[in-house]
Design brief:
The structure holds 2 protein chains of 2 kinds. In chain A, the strands form 6 sheets. Chain A has a 5-stranded parallel beta sheet, sandwiched between helices. Chain A has a 5-stranded antiparallel beta sheet with strand order 13-17-16-14-15. In chain A, strand 20 (609-614) and strand 21 (623-628) form a beta hairpin. The two termini of chain A are 42 Å apart. Chain A is an alpha+beta fold. Chain A is globular, with a radius of gyration of 24 Å. Among the domains of chain A are: 272-402, Succinate dehydrogenase/fumarate reductase flavoprotein, catalytic domain (Flavocytochrome C3, Chain A, domain 1); 485-609, Fumarate reductase/succinate dehydrogenase flavoprotein-like, C-terminal domain (Methane Monooxygenase Hydroxylase, Chain G, domain 1, Up-down Bundle), CATH 1.20.58. The longest helix of chain A is centred in the last third of the chain and has 25 residues, at 556-580. Helix content of chain A is 37%, strand content 15%. Helix content of chain B is 33%, strand content 12%. In chain B, the strands form 2 sheets. Chain B has a 5-stranded mixed beta sheet. Chain B has a two-stranded antiparallel sheet with strand order 6-7. Chain B has 2 domains: 6-144, Ubiquitin-like (UB roll), CATH 3.10.20.30; 150-282, Alpha-helical ferredoxin (Fumarate Reductase Iron-sulfur Protein, Chain B, domain 2), CATH 1.10.1060.10. In chain B, strand 6 (142-144) and strand 7 (147-148) form a beta hairpin. In chain B, helix 6 packs across helix 9 and helix 7 (228-242) crosses helix 9 (263-282). Chain B is elongated, with a radius of gyration of 23 Å. Chain B has helices at 6-10, 66-79, 152-158, 180-190, 197-201, 208-219, 228-242, 251-255, 263-282; strands at residues 33-42, 51-61, 102-103, 106-107, 129-133, 142-144, 147-148. Classes of the chains: A alpha+beta, B alpha+beta. Chains A and B meet through helix 3, helix 5, helix 6, helix 9 and helix 11 of A and helix 1, helix 2, helix 3 and helix 4 of B. Bound molecules: flavin-adenine dinucleotide (FAD), iron/sulfur cluster and FE2/S2 (inorganic) cluster (FES). FE2/S2 (inorganic) cluster binds at residues 89-92, 94-99, 115, 117 of chain B. FE2/S2 (inorganic) cluster (FES) binds next to loops of chain B.
Chain lengths: 642, 286
């Protein structure tokens, strides 16, 4: 919350190890019988939203849950492949809450709030218990106990997984818990319903405006609190590994109503995705990080070498990661692997028909262990690669290239997961909280479920307890009719521009700018350029957009128009945030700030803080507020992978 | 698909760095192109009369996915002042179960174990005429064009497709070992993505494959035992309210992108018979 103009993260006192436990005891409680006198709106039914809605309803709160999908089971969480971390130490290899906490703070390049991360590591234990009890089919050993693996370069095996579909299985668990509450009458579920505005009264969140995507009806819903669990904004790049419908709209509309937006420039680019094949590529597919355990990454040493991979002799190949990072080789962290791929492709050494990839070569491991052994490990990934590209990765190397994957930035929240608008909370990828400047593999699923199952259900009660007896703002209150009228006008506006270009066209063009200038490597000149090109394209959008059809039925162009309009404003903020942050950290690499070896150079003196931006109006630049970060438990050090 | 809209003219104009993931025209894909004709079902709303509209699709890249082809047709429609075709999709990775479509009469098209979003144009031949329709079933009413309403699946889950454990009410996960074999079979069932292809492919529009997959996932593991019989009766009977009955054609498993096995239907049928007896006993009626 904002107290006298200062961001107060409401981090409780006490030792790191006891903060959360003590705080749970000191928070005010709502008595079980009184919980049903409170209504809570949860927007989003992915891992974070479904787990929160189910848990809040089990506690007795009356919950309304919204999703633009046709079923909660379709949320983008479903696509997570790799796994979910937890400090169970089932493998007896030295893991602990403290180690997971430590790894997450360090992995985030010292740009996260220690207290939040510690709590995350603590509740990670409960998540696995909860999910296993729900019937999530985690991988098991022959003795029937849970299996773990090491993921993303972690030195301990703490990742729980469910074949290559961990996200789907966890989401089904949360969705089924939600379905149980829907059946019991505790949750009212609105599908194919999109939130288009946050309603506030006297500075407090009191509801949302939604559009029924099938009937086009725009209406207000009110409650005592609003929870936004609406996912990340990676689709601002147009091409990303995110599902097509992922967007920033709910968070952005809340931002425009007073919620500060934090660290917009922290985005994660995943190194191993299948490169685009043509201009009409609509999304990029992730190939699991685990492939880097056995695959060797290389490009031809010469520029513009058009020979097929098999005809390029060993001495004319550059295994650039192995050459530059002898200790870690192909297993360097995501940001390092991604940036190096960009460097070689920029040098004209890219491979494939569009020269937009690097090779990931399995010939050595196939030679050493045999094709069958490799198929046993990676068979499904190899099949997927072949299905998409038509190329057989057993016969020749795969082509990969980095793609946007995750956004660490998001709505600023305090320790209670409340935004700067009292009564409005944000959980899951939509908030900025736990990953600092870089998220570790298998930690997003953990955070979404931590927020939804084990943090928000406690913290929200502390806030609501003081409001017992307060009625919900009626939906015919002037604040509601005003907000509904504004959304109705905005919808009409898109339909009436009557220009010549489709929404997708603008989205693609915007994506190119964001990718080129606010992607893997940023420079002040590039960011300045973005800050002039984005508004120019945005002006063209408002003048030349064509949205066919009407607002009175299913109209996906209309839905996308609202989302892309918000992406324009977000992209501008990303550029601004990246420009002010004169350092490199995690996913934010400013070319001006690198070590002599070309690694990210942090500036802890000046930038060990969160940047949280406050909206004023469309014509005024947001104000940058800061939340200072202190590192009491994990000493600040420079990462090195040589 | 060349020269059909302003889109393609613009490709070469990108002023940004050449290494962009969105490459310009200067570097053409080496793979081939196809000239296709599409007959696509258009329907304004649930009660409107629908019909086929024919679209020419020249110069389709073999590397494109089926949904990217629809994207292009839509771009062209918008350019020409038409209204784009509505179709459901999201992940485009074969996991969310949102995409659908009957392609030449087959749910998700002719490729085995493949969702529409993962179907690539190289699986078609030059000159093909491709018919595209929505999934058809009484329980899946058309919303618009190719979009159908599959919420009847959610009703089946709400009828008991869950394990009742409130958040926080459980002990350590490893206190309940699950035999690996049970766990693996349960997983085979849990792989269902809820797409509804099984229903669309079935001559009776039955939902046995989906329901049995959801039910077996939970009924096969220790955690699912306490509610096993109650769940079975309730899910099966809710299914019967919406869907037709199974006459063992097996079309469902042929169409299923996750190759869910017919064995689960047999398992569900056995469990249903047992459930009827046990539930009656439990209710003191026996
Ligand atoms: C390909 C891929 C693989 C990944 N693999 C892993 C992994 O192995 N491990 C890991 O930890 N993480 C992984 N991640 C990241 C992780 O999956 C996501 O960060 C996480 O699932 C996000 O969950 P969420 O609940 O916050 O949001 P989402 O799952 O995106 O859910 C958002 C919800 O909000 C709804 N919504 C959004 N806006 C609105 C609106 N305006 N109105 C109404 N509803 C709205 C949507 O309908 C949806 O229900 C992966 C991500 C990708 C892209
Ligand atoms: S059983 Fe197969 S076809 Fe049916 S809904 Fe599940 S995944 Fe789709
Ligand atoms: S779009 Fe997700 S399965 Fe096809």
């Amino acid at each position: 919350m904002v107290m006298n103009g200062v961001l107060d993260a409401r981090v409780p006192d006490g030792t790191m190890a006891n903060k959360w436990t003590d705080h749970k005891f000191s928070m005010k409680l709502v008595n079980p019988n009184n919980k049903r006198r409170f209504e809570i709106i949860v927007v989003g039914t992915g891992l974070a939203g479904a787990s929160a809605a189910a848990s809040l309803s089990e506690l007795g709160y009356r919950v309304k849950a919204f999703t633009f999908h046709d079923s909660p089971r379709r949320a983008h969480s479903i696509a997570a492949q790799g796994g979910i971390n937890a400090a169970k130490n089932y493998t007896n290899d030295g893991d602990s809450v403290h180690r997971l906490f430590y790894d997450t703070v360090k992995g985030g390049d010292y740009r996260s709030r220690e207290a939040n991360v510690h709590r995350l590591a603590e509740v990670s234990l409960n998540i696995i218990d909860q999910c296993a009890a729900q019937g999530v089919p985690f991988a098991r050993e022959y003795g029937g106990l849970l299996d773990n693996r090491s993921f993303g370069g972690a030195q301990v095996s703490r990742t729980f997984y469910a074949r290559g579909q961990t996200g789907q299985q966890l989401l089904l668990g949360a969705y089924q818990a939600l379905a149980k509450q829907v059946a019991a009458g505790g949750v009212e579920l609105y599908t194919r319903t999109e939130m288009l505005d946050l309603i506030t009264k006297d500075g407090r969140a009191c509801g949302i405006v939604t559009r029924d995507l099938v009937s086009g009806e725009i209406e207000a819903h009110t409650a005592h609190a609003v929870v936004l669990a609406t996912g990340g904004y990676g689709n601002v790049y147009y091409l990303s590994t995110n599902a097509m419908a992922c967007n920033v709209t709910a968070a952005w509309r809340a931002h425009r109503r007073g919620a500060f937006f934090a660290n917009a420039c922290y985005t994660q680019i995943h190194p191993t995705c299948i490169p685009a094949s043509d201009e009409f590529q609509s999304k990029l597919t992730l190939m699991s990080e685990s492939l880097r355990n056995d695959g060797r990454i290389w490009v031809p040493s010469q520029m513009d070498d058009a020979r097929p991979a098999g005809q390029i002799p060993e001495p004319e190949r550059d295994y650039y990661l192995e050459r530059k990072y002898p200790a870690f080789g192909n297993l360097v962290p995501r940001d390092v692997a991604s940036r190096n791929a960009k460097t070689v492709v920029d040098q004209g050494k890219g491979v494939g028909p569009l020269r937009n990839g690097v090779y990931l070569d399995f010939s050595e491991v196939i030679g050493r262990e045999g094709k069958d052994a490799v198929a046993a490990k990676y068979g499904n990934l190899f099949d997927m690669y072949e299905r998409i590209t038509g190329e057989n990765p057993y016969a020749g190397p795969m082509r990969i290239y980095p793609a946007t994957h995750y956004t660490m930035g998001g709505l600023w929240v305090d320790y209670h997961l409340m935004t700067t608008v009292p009564g409005c909370y944000s959980i899951g990828e939509a908030n900025f909280s736990d990953h600092g400047a870089n998220r570790l593999g298998a930690s997003a699923l953990m955070q979404g479920l931590a927020d939804g199952y084990f943090v928000l259900p406690y913290t929200i009660g502390d806030d609501l307890a003081a409001r017992l007896g307060e009625p919900v703002v009626p939906t015919d209150d002037p604040v509601c009719s005003q907000a509904v009228a504004e959304v109705t006008d905005a919808t009409e506006r898109f339909l009436s521009i009557g220009g010549t270009r489709s929404v997708d066209w603008f989205h693609r063009e915007l994506g190119k700018i964001v990718w080129d200038y606010i992607g893997m490597e940023r420079t002040s000149a590039g960011l300045e350029k973005a800050l002039s090109e984005i508004p120019a394209l945005e002006a063209e959008f408002w003048a030349d957009l064509r949205v066919p059809g009407s607002g009175a039925n299913l109209n996906q162009s209309l839905e996308k128009a609202g989302r892309v309009a918000d992406f324009f404003e977000l992209a501008t903020l990303m550029a601004r945030d990246a420009l002010v942050r004169e350092e490199s950290c995690g996913g934010h690499f400013r070319a001006e700030h690198q070590t002599p070896e070309g690694e990210a150079q942090r500036d802890d003196e000046n930038f060990a803080h969160v940047a949280a931006w406050e909206w004023h109006d469309t014509d005024t630049v947001q104000t940058r507020h800061t939340e200072e970060l202190s590192f009491d438990e994990v000493a600040l050090t420079q990462r090195s992978y040589k | 698909m060349s020269g059909t809209n302003g889109q393609s003219q613009h490709n070469g104009q990108s002023q940004h760095n050449g290494q962009s993931q969105h490459n310009g025209q200067s570097q053409q894909s080496q793979s081939g192109t196809l000239n296709l004709t599409l007959r696509i079902w258009r329907q304004d709303g649930p009660d409107a009369k629908g019909g086929f509209v024919t679209f020419d699709a020249p110069g389709v890249s073999e590397d494109m996915s089926f949904l990217e082809l629809l994207d292009i047709i839509n771009e062209r429609l918008i350019d020409e002042g038409g209204v784009p075709i509505e179709f459901d999709h999201d992940c485009r990775e074969g996991i969310c179960g949102t995409c659908s479509l009957m392609i030449n009469g087959r749910a998700h098209g002719h490729e085995v174990a493949t969702t529409t979003c993962q179907l690539h144009m190289r699986k078609f031949s030059d000159g093909d005429v491709i018919t595209v329709e929505p999934f058809r079933a009484k329980a899946f009413p058309v919303v618009r064009d190719l979009v159908v309403d599959r919420s009847s699946f959610d009703r089946i889950i709400e009828a008991g497709g869950y394990i009742s454990v409130n958040t926080g009410a459980v002990g350590d996960a490893n206190l309940t070992p699950v035999p690996k074999e049970a766990s693996d079979t349960s997983f085979d069932a849990a792989a269902c993505i809820g797409c509804g292809a099984c229903v669309a492919a079935c001559p009776n529009s039955a939902a046995q494959l989906f329901t049995s997959a959801k039910l077996a996932h939970l009924n096969l593991i220790p955690q699912g035992q306490p509610q096993r019989w109650e769940r079975t009766e309730s899910m099966v009977e809710t299914m019967e309210q919406f869907f037709g009955s199974c006459t063992n054609h097996g079309e469902c498993t042929e169409a299923c992108p996750k190759e869910i096995s017919l064995d689960f239907i047999a398992f569900m049928n056995r469990d249903y018979v047992k459930a009827k007896i046990k539930n009656r006993k439990l209710a003191g009626q026996n």
